[in-house]
Amino acid sequence: MSVKRIGVLTSGGDAPGMNACVRSVVRTALYHGIECYGIRRGYNGLITGDIIKLDEKNVSHTINRGGTILYTARSKEFLNEEGQKKAVSTCKFLGLDSIIAIGGDGTFRGARALSKWGINVVCIPATIDNDISCTNYSIGFDTAANTAIDCIDKLRDTMQSHERCSVVEVMGRNAGFLAMYVGLAVGATAVLVPEKEIDFERDVIEKIRAARFNGFTHYMIVVAEGAGSAADIANKIKDSIDLDPRVTVLGHIQRGGTPSGRDRVNATKMGYLAVELLLAGKTNRIVCTKAGTFTDVDIDEALQMQKHIQSMEVDVMAAMTGI
C-alpha cells in the first residue's frame, strides 16, 4: 500500500497527551517523506473540509500541552451515510489516502465507517476513562488520575482539620477504572464503581463505621460518575448516620493540564506505530498495549471486546478498607 498523504484527527472527549500523539504522527510521517494534514474538529472537519497542512513548526512545543491543537467535536452528521459520503469525498478530493484517528470507542466506530468506503484507517486510544476494551492503557488516563489524586490529597487536609466526611465524584462515564485507581492511590474509605453492585449499608456505611472504630474521624468516599451522584450519596450518608458530608465534583479539571511523562511517552510511541502500520500495508487497526508491549488489533474485533475492573483491585480495596 502506497502512503502519500496522511490525515490525523482527534475526536470525542479531549485527553492529555493528544497533542503529543499528533506531534508523533506528524514527525514520523515527515521522517518517511509523507505529507501530513490536520483535520480539525474531528469527523466534522472531514465533512466541512476544515483541514490544515502540518509540519515540524506546527507541532513544535506541543508535547507538553494539554487539550488538542486540532480541537475536537462530536459529529451527528457523520453518523449517517450522507455525512460519511461527504467525508470520503473530502479525502478523495485532497488525496488523503489514510486517516489516523485519536480518541475512544466512538472515534473507532467512525474510522470503521470510513474504512468501509475504502479509506485506510488506524486508530489510537485516547480517553481519561481508560475504558477501551482492546488496550490496557489509553492516552490521558495517567494525567487525569494524577490530577484527581492531587486534588483529593489537598481536600483531605481540610477534611482532617474539620473531622469531616468528603464525597468526591470523579469522571469515567460508565466505567469505574479511574475511580478505582484514584481510590486506591488516596487511601479512600470507600470507592463506588458502576461495575460492582452497590450495597449501600455494606459498601459505605459499615466502612465509615469501621474507620471510626479504628480511630479515624475523617472519611473519604470516591464515587465514579457512572455509579451515581456524589450529592445523592452524601444525602444518603446524612440520612443513615446523621453525618454531614461535603461534596466535591472534580469534573472537567481532570481532562486538562500538562500531560504526565507516561502519557507523553506512550502517546509518542502510539503515534509512531500508527504510521508504521500504514507503511506496512495494515489498515482498519487500533494501536494498543498488551502485557506492557505495543501492538495492534482489528477494529471489528476490538469493538466486540469487553473490559472489566481487575478482581485484584477489588480485593486490595477490600483489604485496605478493613471490610
What does this 3D model show about the protein?
With 323 residues, the chain is an alpha/beta fold. The protein has two domains: 5-140 and 259-303, Rossmann fold; 142-256, Phosphofructokinase domain (Rossmann fold, 3-Layer(aba) Sandwich). Helices cover 44% and strands 18% of the residues. The protein is built from twelve helices and eleven strands. It has helices spanning 18-31, 42-48, 56-59, 81-94, 105-115, 141-162, 177-186, 200-213, 230-241, 261-279, 299-303, 311-321; strands at 5-10, 35-39, 51-54, 98-103, 120-125, 165-170, 190-192, 219-224, 246-249, 285-290, 293-298. Strands 3-2-1-4-5-10-11 form a seven-stranded mixed β-sheet, sandwiched between helices. Helix 5 (105-115) links the parallel strand 4 (98-103) and strand 5 (120-125). Helix 2 crosses helix 4 (81-94) and helix 6 (141-162) packs across helix 7 (177-186). The longest helix is centred in the middle third of the chain and has 22 residues, at 141-162. The model has no long low-confidence stretch (mean pLDDT 94).
Overall mean confidence score, pLDDT: 94
Overall SS class: alpha/beta
Query: Which CATH C-level class of the largest domain is it?
Result: Alpha Beta
Radius of gyration from CA coordinates: 22 Å
Stretches where pLDDT is under 50 for at least 5 consecutive residues are none
Query: What is the CATH third-level topology name of the largest domain?
Result: Rossmann fold
Q: Secondary-structure element order, as H and E?
A: EHEHEHHEHEHEHEHEHEHEEHH
Helical content class: 40-55%
